[in-house]
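Case 296 in the screening queue. Each case pairs one protein sequence with one candidate compound; here the compound is manganese (II) ion. For every case the pipeline is the same: read the inputs, emit a complex structure as C-alpha cells, and attach any notable structural observations.

Predict complex for case 296.
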Amino acid sequence: MSVTIRQLHPVFVGEVEGIDMRRPLTPDEVAAIEAGMDKYAVLVFHDQNISDEQQVAFSRNFGRIELAVGGNITKANERRLSVELADVSNLDQNSRIFARDDRRRMFNLGNRLWHSDSSFRAVPAKYSLLSGRAIPGSGGNTEFADMRAAYDALDDATKAQVEDMICEHSLMYSRGQLGFSEFTDEERAMFKPVRQRLVRTHPVTGRKSLFLASHAGTIVGWPMPEARSFLRDLVEHATQREFVYAHRWRQYDLVMWDNRQTMHRARPFNETGEVRDVRRTTIGGDGPTVQQEQAA
Ligand code: OGA
Ligand code: MN
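Case 296 output:
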C-alpha cells in the first residue's frame, strides 16, 4: 500500500494514510514519513491499535529512543510503563486515576503550557510519537504551533535580535510558572538548566524556526524580568491562532511531531473522572544546540 499525506491545516500538519504500525515498515515507507515530517512537522495517523512493543519498533525507524528518565518526578518504582515510554496519562502505576492533589499530577499539569519536548535536556528531542490508547469523551485536545511560520512572521529587526540568542531551559522554570516550585535536592540537580539556541535551522529543509518552550526561563546576558517578558511576547506571537492546529483525539490515533519545528500543549479534560491513556515514545536529537558547560 502506498503512503499518502493530506495537509490538515493551512501552514502545517499532514494526515497519513497507508501505514500499518503493527508491521515492519519498508525503507520507502520510512522515507515517505521522514519527508512528511520535514514538510508538515506534525503527522496524524488514525486507527493504529498498537502495543507498547509495536510503538517502540515503529519509533526506532526514526532514530534512537530517548529514555523517559530525568524528565519527571515519578520514581523508578512508580512507573506504569517501560522506560522507553513516557507516561502522559492521568494514571498511577496501578492504573488508577491520580488524586487531584497528587504531586505527580500537579507536575504533569506543566504539559498544559506550550513546550517542546526535552528542551530541558542538553540534547533536546527530535521527534515525539504520542499514541492515544484511551481518550476521554470530551476535552483533552493537543494543540500544536508551527514555529517555522512563527519565525517567518517576525519583523526583520526581531529576526536579527534573536539570531544568536541563547536561552536556559529547565523543568523548574515551566513548573514554576504554575506555582509548583518545591523540589527536592535530587530533583534540582536533575532539572539543572541547560542552554539552547533560540533560532534553529532545519538540517534538511534549511528553514529556520523559533526554539521556544515554557521551559525557557532566562536569556543569557539579560536581566531576568526582561528575559521573561521578551520570551512571553515571543510565545504569544508564536501561538497566534493562524499558526495553531488543535488535534481532537480519536482512540488509536498516533500523532508524531518534530520538536525542532513545533511547540505543543495539552488541553484540559475531566482529569479526576475520566481516563486519558496516552503514551509517548521520543526520538533523541542529534546533539546539543549550543556548546554545553561540562558537567561537574
Ligand atoms: C507530550 C505532551 C500533550 C497531551 O506527550 O509530550 O505534551 O495532550 N502531550 O497529552
Ligand atoms: Mn510534551
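Case 296 observations:
- Residues 141 and 249 are 6 Å apart (CA to CA).
- The chain has one domain: 4-284.
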